[in-house]
Amino acid sequence: MPKTISAFVAYLIILGLLLMGACSILAHGSTSTPRPNSLGVEEVYTNPNTYLLAVPLEAVALEDGKYVTIRFAPYNTYALYDESILFCDVDSVRKFEGKSGVVVVTYETRAHTMYRGLGCHELISVFEVK
User: Which domain holds residue 76?
Assistant: First the structure.
């Protein structure tokens, strides 16, 4: 009698595991579907901007003034560390005029065009930190 009970329990455990496996395969859950809204328009759920708190060091115009790369010394980093960002418009340097010291630079994270295999970014704003 005890052998039949233990065999029955083992059978139930195996059957339960098979059912759980079948249910997990048949489940169709998804977390990457767009969330609907009442207006029916597409919404962006990520920040499209990148922010940099730094001191601008130098700007170099590239390819007849179409592109400009600006070298920054990010705030609170080692003196030998710098960061260069390629911007799509040489006129973006004008946004730095009249500003000195530490600035907050806002630019689009997504590169819209390429220059020799590097993505260039659109500069949105430059604010001086006082």
Answer: 49-128
